[in-house]
Every structure is written in C-alpha cells, then in structure tokens.
Amino acid sequence: MELRVLGCSGGIGEQLRTTTLLLNKNILIDAGTGVGDLTLDEMEKIHHVFITHSHLDHIAGLPLLIDSIFERIKSPVTIHAQPETIKAVKEHIFNNVIWPDFTVLPTKDKPVIRFEIMKPGELFAVNENSNLQMVKVKHVVPAVGYVVQTPEHILAFSGDTTTNDHFWEEMNKLPRLDYLIVEAAFTNQDYELSRRAGHYCPDTLAEDIKKLQHQPHVYLSHHKPGAEKTIFAECGQAIRTHKVTSLVGGQRITL
Questions:
Q1: Which of 23, 173, 207, 231 has the fewest CB atoms within 10 Å, i.e. is most exposed?
Q2: Domain 2-253 maps to which CATH number in 3.20.20.10, 3.40.50.720, 3.60.15.10, 3.40.640.10?
Q3: Under DSSP, is residue 47 helix (H, G, I), strand (E, B) or coil?
Q4: How far apart are the C-alpha atoms of 34 and 88, rounded to whole Å?
Q5: pLDDT band for position 253 (cuts 50, 70, 90)
C-alpha cells in the first residue's frame, strides 16, 4: 500500500497544493487543491473521501472532483466525516448555490455522492489486512486525524490541531508508530496567532511531541507559504527526540 502526497501546504502558490493524501489509489484523506494534480482516470478510481474538518483548504477540491467524474462513475463516492463536518459541507458547498447538490444528482435514487457519519475511534477496513481509524484532535472547528494500519507499518496524520493530550494518548495506545505526519503551520514569532487559529508552531509542537512514547519518522506539514524554511529550522532546533523532515508534494510513503 502507498500513501501519495498530492498536497501538504498551508496555502497555495507555485507548486504548492493544500492538504490532499491519496491512499491505496482509491481513498482520499482530505480533498484540498492537490486533487487537481490527479488525472481523470485516477479521479475515477476514488471511492472514499475521509475529511479531517470543514476548512476550505481541506475540502476545496471536493466539489470540482465530483463534477469532473460525474459522468464517469457508476457508484457514489462516499464522504466520511464527523456530523458537524458533514453538516457544514452540505450547507455551504453542495447547496445548489455554491455548487450543485450531488446527493440527488443525477437522481435521488442514484446520486454521485453519499455522506457517511464517522466518529473518533471508529475503524474503516481499507482491505482485509489494513484499516483506517479516526482520532479526535483540537482545532477551532470540530476536527480529527487518521491512523492507517497495515501489516507492515502504522502511519498517523494529525490533520489541523494545536496543543492537546488526546491525540498523543491515542498514539501511545498503538503497538508501534512508524510515520507521523503532523502540522506546524506558523513560526514561533506567530505563536499568539497560531494559538488563536488552533495550530502548532514549532515550540508548541515540540512540547507536545514529548508526550509521544514511540519513535516514528516525523514529517512536518501545513506550513504557511513563504515561512517553510523558518518553520523547519525552528522545529529542528526545538525537537531533539525524533527524526524530523518536511513533507513535500509528490512524496510517496510505502505502507
């Protein structure tokens, strides 16, 4: 199994795409602007989308994805998320004002998308040997991360979060943790802004990662455009207990 990074930036710009992870060729974790780098044939293979939260940088590609494959798919794409996230996406995106309501198109009996409520702690079987689990995190809107477990590796993705205990407690319950994708959105200079926005800066991430009992390879994501080098340097100075590198678009992680 492979995780392909289509987007991992906290904004857009040349060669920058917002959060979009492709798992096993048919599952998206978030659907930011990185969706646009898929071919139509690749889009057509997507059967499930797992959303971390309702912010635009994590769902911006979703309505355009559905519209692009509207006539190509024979079964609906299932969108998995918390109830609050589904409510926001229905009311503010697929509302026949911003975008068509694809839950009733082309017909109510045969829609192109369907929503399925998922709650923290629940598991989704990716295949007979692997699963994906939703994990609660702390953000300014209801938000989650996900854990992908295969027979060979375990990977966790924090989504957008700030200082909390629950995510790290759930990580410590895992039998091991090989890869951790965790956000670091702001520089330390913007500590107050990061706190108000519900994100990590290098110093707050460094404090929280001390709670982790595993030794995964840590990939940093969600840097604000233009601040990437500073954030990475500050994380390198602050985090001494784990190997840390920056996640980049186009990267592939074998699971």
A1: 173
A2: 3.60.15.10
A3: coil
A4: 21
A5: very high
219 with 182: CB under 8 angstroms?
A: yes
CB-based contact 14:33 (threshold 8 Å):
no
Q: For residue range 198-243, what is the model confidence (pLDDT) as tens digits?
A: 999 999 999 999 999 999 999 999 999 999 999 999 999 999 889 9
Residue 45 burial class via C-beta count within 10 angstroms: exposed 0-12, middle 13-18, buried 19 and up:
middle
Please report, for the chain, the start and end positions of each structural domain, with discontinuous segments joined by +: 2-253
CB contact at 8 A, 244 and 223: no
- For the record, the structure tokens of 53 come out as 């939260």
- Backbone φ and ψ for 68, nearest 5 degrees, come out as -70, -30
